[in-house]
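Sample pair:
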Amino acid sequence: MEDSARSEKGYDLVSLFSGGLDSILATRLMSEAGYSILAVKMLLPFYPGRFSKVVKQYFHKAAGCDVVELPVGEDYLELVRSPSFGYGKNANPCLDCRLYIYKKGWEVAESVGARGIITGEVVGQRPFSQRRDALVFLDKRSGIEGRILRPLTAGNLPETELESSGFVKREALLDIQGRGRSRQFELAKEFGIKDFLNPAGGCLLTDPRFARRVFALIESGNLNFLAIDIAKFGRMFKINNVILSVARDKRESDELDSIYNVEKEKNIGHIECLRYPGPSAVFLAPSGVSEKMLKLLSSIVVRFSPKLGGKGEVLLSVGGQDNVIFATAADNATIEEHRI
C-alpha cells in the first residue's frame, strides 16, 4: 500500500476484534500488508469480558496493532429482546448482532479517519451468520456496503469498494472457507502466533441452558446488564417476575456476593443462611417483593443448604436493610416448578 493512502489520523482500517484466532489473523494479515490498524474489542455482555493489561500486550504483539475496548449500551440489549431478523438455534440474534457491531465499528472508523472495517469472519464457518448469502445480506443491510473487508475469506465473496478502488489489493487476501481450521493454524505458525482463545468458547446465547435463562429474563422484564451477570452463576429460578440465583459452590457464592455488594442500591436482594454455612443467593425484583415472596425465595435457598437440615434462619438483605426470618426448605415440586 502506498504511504499516500494512509489516513491523516493514523489508521487506515478498524478491526472488529474478538481475540479469537481468526480475528487475530485477519488483523495481522492486513498489518503485515502495511496498513495501519486500530483493533476494537466490543465489550458484549454475553462474551468473555475485558482484556487484562497482559492480554492486551499479547494481542498488540500478535495482531500487530493497537487494541482498544468499547462498551455497548442499552440499545444492544434491545436487539436481544426483539431482534429484527430473529434468533438462531437458541437465544442468539446473530444477524442483528453483527449489524450492530458493524455500525459501532464504522462509527469508530469515521472518528479516526479509517477507510473501512475488517473482520475475521470466514464463509461457511458458522451455520447461521457466516453463510455466504448471510454475509452478502449483512453487507447490503449494514449501510456501509463495500466498506467491510474479510481478509481471510475475501476470495469467496464479491469484490468490495476497498478493493475496486485499489486501496486493498485482492491478491493479498485469502479464500479460506468452511469449518476446518488447518489453514488458520498454518497461518498462525507462519506469523509465530502460539497462543489464542479456544474457538469453542464464544457467545453464551448459543448455549441452550443459558438461552433459557435469557428468555426468562426477557419474559420477567429483568433483562439488563446486572441480570445478565447474575444469570452466569448458580441455579436459576423464576417466580412471577422475580429472578433468583442460588450458588452451587463457594466460587459462585463469592461471585454473587460481589455482585450484590456492588449493586445493592438497585432492585436486588441477597439471601444467606445463618448458623451453618450454605450457598449465597441474589434475587431481582423490578416491582418490589412481598413478604410471602421473600419466604418462598428463602425456602428455595434453604432447600440447597443441607447443613440446615431442612429448616433454619436466613439473613435477608433488601434495599440496604437486613432482616432475619425462619424458613423451611421448599419441596421438590416447588423447585421444579420454578427452576429455569
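The first helix runs from residue 21 to 32.
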